[in-house]
Amino acid sequence: MTPAGTIPCELCAGAGGTVLWRDGRCRVVLVDEPGYPGFCRVIWNAHVREMTDLAVADRDHVMAIVFAVERALRAELAPEKVNLASLGNMTPHVHWHVIPRHTDDPHFPSPVWAAAQRPPARPAPHDLAARLAAAIARAVGHVDGS
Ligand SMILES: [Zn+2]
């Protein structure tokens, strides 16, 4: 129930993207970002603003999932680099951006939040969500064991 007069939280109201993996604590979503196939976010399900507000075991868990996503992106997309970022200034959910970077992406070699240098050129493979979901499930088994 949202108190009257407050803005509903969009990451409680919806998944925030195509869900690739989830457990009781966090979820991995694929974001529809033109020019960035495989752009994922790891989102803590509950309202926690800072990594240091999480219990140590929960911190370790969310990072294990971030690393599993990085491993999956490297296996499936062979990016030039993987960018990891935690910003989230406008949401009460701790989340990590896991961004595969390619030399032909719109902002390379600058951060994705810089001015674009070229138009989006890399379409998403039609089966990307299924491939990434499978790769993340495999990678979670390697890094987390749960
Ligand atoms: Zn929320």
Describe the fold and architecture:
The chain is of the alpha+beta class. It has a single domain, classed as HIT family, subunit A, CATH 3.30.428.10. Helices cover 29% and strands 18% of the residues. The chain has three helices and five strands; from the N terminus they run H-E-E-E-H-E-E-H. It has a five-stranded antiparallel beta sheet, with helices on one face. Helix 2 packs across helix 3 (128-143). It is globular, with a radius of gyration of 16 Å. The mean pLDDT is 93. Zinc ion binds at residues 9, 11-12, 47, 92-93.
CATH topology name, in short, is HIT family, subunit A
Give the integer mean of the pLDDT values.
Answer: 93
Quick one: CATH class?
Answer: Alpha Beta
Give the overall form: globular
- How would you classify the helix and strand content by structural class? alpha+beta
In total, how many domains does the architecture comprise? 1
**H/E series:** HEEEHEEH
Strand portion, in percent? 15-25%
Distinct small-molecule ligands in the complex: zinc ion
Helix content: 25-40%
Query: Strand order within the widest sheet?
Result: 1-2-3-5-4
CATH superfamily label: HIT-like
Low-confidence stretches: none
